[in-house]
Amino acid sequence: MREASDRGAGTLNETDGGRLFALTGATGFLGSHLMAGLIRAGHRVVVLGRSRNGTGLADRVDALLDWFGLESCRERIDAVEVDLLEPRLGLSRRRYDTLCPLTAGIIHCASDTRFSERCRRESMDINVAALHGIVTLARDAGAGCFHYVSTAYVCPTSPSLCAEVPAGPRAFANVYEEMKTLAEAEVAALCSRHAVPYTIVRPSIVYGDSATGRSNRFNALYYHVRALQLIRDIYLNDIEHHGGLRSRGAGIHLDDEGTLHLPLRIFIPRRGQVNLIPVDHFVAVMAEILGDPRTGTIYHVTSDAPRTTEELAGYCERFLRIRGIELVCGEEMDRTVQNPAEEVFNKLVKPYLPYLADTRRFDRRNTAKLTAGLSTPEMTYAVFERCMRYAVSVNWGSTNGRPPGAM
Amino acid sequence: MDEALRIAVNCRHYAMCKIDFLGTGVCPSGLAHHYVSFYPEGRMDLYAALAKHRVPVTEECVRIVESCDLCGRCDKQCCFITGLRPTRVMEALRSLVAAHLAAGRPVERPAGDLLLARIRDIVGERWATNDPAIRATYAHDPSPLALFRMPRYVILPGTREEVSSVVRLLRDAGVPWAARGNATNLMGFGFSEGAVLDLNRMKEMEFDEKNWCVKIGPGVTAFDLQREAAGRGYRVNVAEPAALVCASMMCAGIVSLFSTAYGASADSHVDAEFVATDGSFFSLNEKNAPNLYAFDRAGAESPGICCSLKVKLHPVTTDEGGVLVPFDSLEKAIDFSRECAVRRIGIAIGVLGTEYLSSFMSPSVRLALEIRDVLTGKLGMACAVLVLGDAYALGSIRAMGHPLIDQRLFTTLSLGLPSLAGAQWLDLVAALGEDEPFSYLKIGGFADLAETALCPSPSRLVQDFDPDLRQVYEEAYSRPDLTDLVWLNMFRITSSRVGREKHFLPFLMYLPLDHGLVSEVSGGLQAIAGAKGLKNALGFITPVDSGKRCILEYDYFLDQNDEGEIERMRQAAAEAGALIDDLSDRTGTIRWMRYIFQQGYCRKENLLYA
């Protein structure tokens, strides 16, 4: 039983002001921004989560509040350590009961976002099996609505517009997509069985704050830019400190203007685009959904103006001061002789290829109905640069920019 | 404690100052006088004994001091392995004795006795002594289990006949004795209150190539034998480089990664000649000889002194090489090593812990600690399996599909260690291994990129050393030997670095190559050491006899001068012994080295299965 390390256990209720939401995944990227958004909107949040690496949930949440500048709002957070796979979330009956009557809505953000087949079991546990306990809590708590945060990439890859409708089985790009698809079906089934109202929210690829550039996670879009930066730095270091013999051997050189010429072909199956939304937009849309949820509704939180992979490659070149990135479509990578940088980078991006060569377009009529007047910020170079500058300034999360409790 | 004394009391007794492993030469005084007292190791002990007033300044003490010209060879050798600078002790020893003489204090000369005179009649005046300055250097080693035992005499016989006569004489006089090689066993063996017979003068080496063997005297070191054998195109299965081969055999048989192919115990030799404890001679190949091929699980008394050993020569092919196969769990590594052994792939196999691996590769303690963290933390490596073999064996390893570190990448990593520790690009590596641990090693261009990133360079590698030593170490690392997986494991030069940060007590045993049992043993040993606050780590695991059994080494570490740690180590060693005894009784398949002591000549099958 997990009460020992809980903070403010059972002290929140709706009469304290604002609405009360239970939130899972609050130490993750989307969850933490949602938590901050809810607090800023005057709501109160019961965070359901786990300790990690010896750091209790309350401390992890505190670190996040510090990062968001919400240190003064700690009394509006109730951190409860739970195990979503256990009956009553691993809580004693008494603790569970004190939790239950207080919950108006539950937002389930907790997720295992790894793509690897090796993680299938953990992914199944966290993404699917855990739903039973959290939906049961929604039932027992009389939650106004159960909001499930999914992904836009459960939608099939078809030339037609991807509708905001339940997704069916198909050939999945990875375990994550497969589990999220299963999870959506499970949410629908469990919520229907328990008569719990629910929504499903499907964001596309989320990056940092479009206005400030801040982020507390540096995967997805950041991952590729960082990989390019690290590869660039290997050659820059060779050129600047070790004579550059090996770089020259690989056809890499630094020009007079300080731009690194780094021939790097990225092999993608087809020309595509990357659907990106900033996290501030995601939070804004969620606020609308939470304010007026329509049960059984699926909401796409996506961009109508996705950037092409070429455009993003150009952003990377400009930001990193490199030249030579070339997108090669359709060729079989394994049959092409590659330089070391290409081999390593193409291996790195392999799991992400479906998203670099994506052709899906997302219908977002349900979302648009709720969010009239709320437009998706475009990923311009200025936004890209702002976000990446921030990432570099916090060394991609390895310095103070990373909330320690979140890791 | 002054710096010289701090260095002196930290001598590990690895005897690396007695072999020329860097090609920089060996202490000329030691080579001329043979007593360990004239080698840097002995001088360190002598200085500590003088500083602690355990011995007076004697005639031999003055001779020992005068024989050292402060040439600095010992610094090159010792610092490379342990990080210590013995020359500072040599200088302090010289100053101490000079001050003693300048003050007009007495130089003692121990009184002779009749027994010493009779011993000298046998071995010659020069080769037996009761001088405390020499005796003190034969009185202890850094083992926490060893007590200071000052012998009455130190004797250096030169022939087997002299050995026989001395043994008879000591027996008749009722004086106990112990035979000593280079005392590198680190377990407190080789000491006696009576006489210590140092066999270092008996360095004969006689190759019999048509019969694939070499006959050696008991003073031949593993390094010297391997070097001679390698020069003729052969290999021998030997232990630590400064260990004397006969002594290693006597102790517990030869344990090395090559035991996978070359076997253990009696597999290593063709014949051996002994002086029995009554002074008589026998050889193993005589019908009426004592049956040293048998093995007694309860332990055995010494059969005498091995005065010559016919060691097997093994053929070497020109296409030999090595690979390291990393694993994220010990269990997977054990299974892989067994698969190789069962399929008879490779001539040497070892599952190496990251503590072992990082110590071997790193020229300094600082780098070793950083690299260990990189291996375990950033790369997720629990251990690696080293496999040496010919091109066919290495081809088979590749065909098995495991990601691996080949010779080229190993050289890059070894010479690029300073850049590896802080390399941000290692973060990429973690991501690359998400689908399959270490799969980045399968990327064709990875070695190239690593080479560019790490900028491997002998000169950068040696920057942690004092400036006056860098040139010689840079030259050493510029030769292929010190990054060649085959050479490193044949000569085991850097193995002693495992005791560089702290002295270590190894627990060695034979047991089935089963990951459940190995985990139980190593987990139990880990728990005991952990409870005592002692650093501990898996050393190595080597399959033997086609993977039916393995040799396991688990190491406990201690500050050899910290009384508290010594006491905790003694307690831990007792508990560890009880654990191993208990597991041995329960399984019936574990053979702890403690009971193999003095039975190293036994038949492997008797040891493992009888």
Summarize the entry for a quick read.
The complex is a heterodimer of chains A (407) and B (610). By secondary structure, chain A is α/β, with parallel strands linked by helices.
Task: Describe what you observe in this structure.
The complex is a heterodimer of chains A (407) and B (610). By secondary structure, chain A is α/β, with parallel strands linked by helices. Chain A has 2 domains: 3-203, NAD(P)-binding Rossmann-like Domain (Rossmann fold); 208-274 and 305-358 and 378-407, no CATH class. Chain A is 38% helix and 16% strand. Chain A is built from 14 helices and 14 strands. Chain A has helices spanning 29-40, 57-68, 93-99, 120-129, 131-141, 175-193, 221-241, 245-249, 279-291, 309-320, 340-349, 353-356, 365-370, 381-393; strands spanning 20-24, 44-49, 77-81, 105-108, 145-149, 198-203, 205-207, 253-254, 260-268, 273-274, 276-278, 297-301, 307-308, 322-329. A 7-stranded parallel β-sheet of chain A has the order 3-2-1-4-5-6-12, sandwiched between helices. In chain A, helix 1 (29-40) packs across helix 9, helix 4 (120-129) packs parallel to helix 6 and helix 5 (131-141) runs parallel beside helix 6. Chain A is globular, with a radius of gyration of 22 Å. Residues 1-12 and 400-407 of chain A have low confidence and may be disordered. Helices cover 42% and strands 15% of the residues of chain B. In chain B, helix 17 packs parallel to helix 20 (446-454) and helix 24 (515-531) packs antiparallel against helix 25 (563-587). The N and C termini of chain B lie far apart (52 Å). Chain B is built from 27 helices and 18 strands. Chain B has 610 residues and is an alpha+beta fold. Chain B folds into 3 domains: 1-155 and 187-199, no CATH class; 205-316, 2-Layer Sandwich (Uridine Diphospho-n-acetylenolpyruvylglucosamine Reductase, domain 3); 321-596, Vanillyl-alcohol Oxidase, Chain A, domain 3. The chains are: A alpha/beta (407), B alpha+beta (610). The A-B interface holds A 114-118, 223, 226-227, 230-231, 233-235, 237-238, 241-242, 246-247, 250, 338-344, 347-348, 351, 396 and B 424-425, 427-428, 431-432, 434-436, 440, 443-446, 448-449, 451-453, 455.
